[in-house]
Amino acid sequence: MDLSKLDKLIHEKARLGIMSLLASRAEHWAFQDLKSELKMSDGNLITHLRTLEKADFVLSEKIEGLGRPQTFYELTEEGRSAFESYLAELEKILRR
User: Fold this and answer.
1) How many domains is the chain partitioned into structurally?
2) DSSP helix/strand/coil, 72
């Protein structure tokens, strides 16, 4: 079993959860929805989101509206491709 081919950036538990949620929708996710779904603290979630943004896997957009501004996140094309490659490698490992 060769786990070295799995993308270590995605493989971390919290980031895998974030990537999975973002890949599950064609539209973006609000920060508060991600936080609620993943049961993560603000600080922990934002740290992982920033890591994924630095890798160009995730794009954020702050939208001013009624009340306080909200930040939304979605996968970039590069992020979606990296996630699909990660899943393909995982499938190869599981088939062995």
Assistant:
1) 1
2) strand
